[in-house]
Specification:
alpha/beta; 27 helices; three-stranded antiparallel β-sheet
Length: 692
């Protein structure tokens, strides 16, 4: 029986405020009961005629019910809140209702809908709501295993140094630290939550559960007989599950881990294949497979699993293919205009808006089921390498850097020590390289490069000898200029994302297979941007190497003409100023006379050159991609069918590049393989050969 409605609306509003305070303390069951009763009492009461009251109650009630697992009721109340906010012209309440609907989708297990909702709100919500939105987005990304993207989402939210950080933010950060391998920091954050909230709080229960997994030598559910890589993956799946979720989560991943556990127990780790299904796109299952194969002493199987470390995120993270929507085109135009006025906070803001919109558009366009892994690649790889080439995949397993080496008909595995040591050494090496305008720090560069060579490459040299290399590297290693390392200086190196990428590209472009000459240097496009001054001198010199080349410089170096020229050339050389924004490599740019040419502008190419040389700073960045999918200019060009891209992931000195580029192109025109020409003439200047 419904209790009588109090005569005064002040009492009802006080109950609402109390419910909000209870929710902030994590007492969501009490909050849901209190606000549900208050909602019934408000029906027909004069205070409900005040526009914000009823939708405000429903927004908070719906969130509390979501956190309690009362999803059906939450769905109804949040939909009503959104409709009322729209009816009464209350945009902020409407956005909060949508955000809470995103949380409902996340806890129900519809992560894609949650991410889409949160991304759509990023450009709309005011700053005071921004932290909560970034936390919700980070939790949704973590649930899909997108650890790096979740870290970026948290970093982009406003920083609260006044002690007002919410329990949700602390728990999401604790999950992030655990998934990054920092159990100690994760446990400290959970203790901070437990000390703040009482035992009846949902926050206390979630923090306690997190802390048990982070600290326990044998977390819940682990059996003594289960191999460590598999049990470690189970821990990560448990941590990734959204805090208040009641669904089981990740059934395909759990089934795959059961198969791995059985195989590892008999030293017969299965090769990844169709049996994995959707689990082929789970990073922690993939790592468990890689580690299990290494422990079983089967490097050929480990190499098959290592392939997936560069492809697992493809259905979840937008690649260089971009839907052609008016909204994305308009946002790219805003970024281009801001970039033309100078790089600063405005350009970073527009870059983030474009990237968020691209994620939404790409995920909306992805309606097919993720593809299962193709068949094994090692046999084709060894056959294609023959006795003259070596393939190296640098990856990590269980905290250690590992090299998988295919050479002379065999696959070998080599442990290279802690992966954190390798990552730090590469970062020191890359950061020691000076900007073009700075005085070279020769001694610092030599020390840093020698350290990387000693850690990552010296253990491999007895295996590979003096053979040219095809090299795939884990995204955690970044985009270093490999040719500047002493162990690789002067050695031809083709950088590829996976062995399969190289096998397919090298087969497609094999001499005599298609009638296309190798290298294809029939039609040449030379482009000189207005700056730096060396760009026009460089192109003028190259026009003597290619007397029949089409030359675009000065007022002719415009975006439309350049893009059209790409589609009508076998070789393209583009010289100018390059720029790559942090975390948005597809907005990498080269300044032309009518504004920046963006990497995403090349997405519509209907035909592609065989070779593109970018004589610019930075435009080799993004190939590694934080989740493995190549991006930036290199990724965009490869996605359109370009066989080989020559570019630098670091700053380039004009005086050094000009003569080196002329020597490089002269060698290519004389028939020297591109990777060899890069090694001879461009590697020391920071340029790399990307592709087959």
């Amino acid at each position: 029986m419904t209790p009588p409605v109090p005569p005064s609306g002040r009492l009802l509003l006080a109950r609402v405020r109390r419910g909000v305070r209870l929710a902030r303390s994590g007492l969501f069951e009490t909050t849901a009961d209190l606000l549900d009763d208050t909602h019934r009492r408000l029906r027909g009461h004069p205070v409900a005629e005040v526009a914000p009251v009823l939708p405000g109650v429903l927004v908070n009630l719906g969130l509390a019910q979501t956190m309690c697992g009362r999803f059906g009721q939450a769905d109804d109340h949040l939909a009503e809140a959104h409709a009322l906010a729209r009816e009464h012209g209350l945009p902020l309440l409407g956005m909060v209702a949508r955000q809470n609907q995103g949380c409902l989708a996340l806890y129900r297990g519809d992560t894609a809908a949650a991410i889409d909702t949160f991304l759509s709100l990023l450009p709309e919500l005011p700053p005071e709501r921004s932290e909560a939105l970034h936390v919700d987005l980070a939790e949704a990304l973590l649930s899909e295993g997108l650890v790096e993207e979740a870290a970026a989402a948290l970093d982009e939210g406003p920083c609260t140094e006044d002690g007002s950080t919410t329990a949700t933010a602390l728990l999401v950060e604790a999950k992030l630290r655990f998934l990054e391998g920092d159990r100690r920091h994760a446990a400290e954050l959970t203790r901070r939550v437990r000390r703040t909230f009482g035992r009846g709080s949902l926050w206390f229960r979630l923090a306690s559960r997190l802390e048990r997994v982070a600290l326990a030598a044998s977390p819940p559910g682990r059996t003594a007989a289960e191999p460590e890589p598999v049990s470690r993956a189970r821990d990560r799946l448990r941590i990734r599950l959204p805090g208040a979720a009641t669904h089981t989560g990740y059934p395909a991943s759990l089934r795959a881990l059961d198969v791995l556990a059985g195989g590892a127990a008999h030293a017969a780790v299965p090769v990844p294949g169709r049996w994995l299904g959707a689990a082929a796109h789970d990073p922690h299952v993939v790592r468990a497979g890689l580690e299990s194969a290494l422990r079983a002493g089967t490097p050929a199987t480990a190499l098959e699993w290592a392939e997936l470390t560069r492809t697992w995120a493809e259905p979840r993270v937008p690649g260089p293919h971009e839907p052609d929507t008016p909204a994305l085109t308009a946002l790219a135009g805003h970024y281009r205009a801001a970039l033309a006025l100078g790089r600063g906070p405005s350009t970073a803001h527009h870059a983030r808006l474009w990237e968020a919109a691209r994620w939404r558009a790409c995920r909306a366009a992805s309606v097919t089921e993720p593809a299962a892994p193709s068949g094994p690649v090692t046999g084709e790889l060894l056959a294609r390498l023959g006795s003259d080439l070596a393939f190296v995949h640098l990856t990590w397993a269980g905290g250690d850097a590992v090299a998988l080496v295919a050479v002379a008909g065999r696959i070998h595995a080599r442990q290279l020590g802690p992966v954190t040591r390798a990552v730090r050494a590469l970062a020191r090496f890359t950061h020691s390289l000076p900007e073009p305008a700075c005085r070279p720090r020769a001694a610092e560069v030599r020390t840093a490069s020698a350290e990387v060579s000693r850690i990552l490459l010296a253990p491999l040299l007895p295996l590979v000898g003096d053979r040219p290399l095809v090299l795939a590297a884990d995204p955690c290693l970044g985009d270093p200029p490999w040719g500047m390392l002493p162990a690789l200086c002067g050695r031809p190196v083709n950088l590829v994302p996976t062995a399969r990428f190289w096998v397919e590209r090298s087969d497609r472009w094999r001499p005599g297979r298609t009638g296309t000459p190798h290298p294809p240097t029939g039609r040449v496009l030379l482009v000189a941007a207005p700056a730096p001054g060396g760009a026009r001198r460089e192109v003028a010199s190259l026009s003597r190497v290619y007397p029949r080349a089409r030359v675009l410089d000065g007022d002719h170096a415009r975006r439309a003409e350049v893009v059209d020229g790409f589609a009508d050339a076998d070789v393209v050389h583009l010289a100018g100023h390059g720029h790559v924004p942090d975390r948005v490599p597809l907005l990498a740019s080269v300044d032309l006379v009518d504004g920046p040419l963006l990497a995403r502008d090349l997405g519509g190419l209907t035909a592609a050159p065989g070779l593109v040389a970018l004589s610019t700073c930075w435009n080799g960045r993004g190939f590694g991609g934080v989740t493995g999918t190549p991006s930036g200019f290199v990724g965009a060009l490869h996605a359109r069918g370009v066989r080989t891209v020559v570019a630098s992931p670091v700053p380039v000195r004009d005086a050094e590049a000009e003569g080196a580029m002329v020597r490089f192109h002269r060698a290519v025109a004389e028939g020297v393989p591109v990777s060899e020409a890069v090694a001879l003439h461009l590697g020391r200047a920071g340029f790399c050969c990307f592709g087959a």
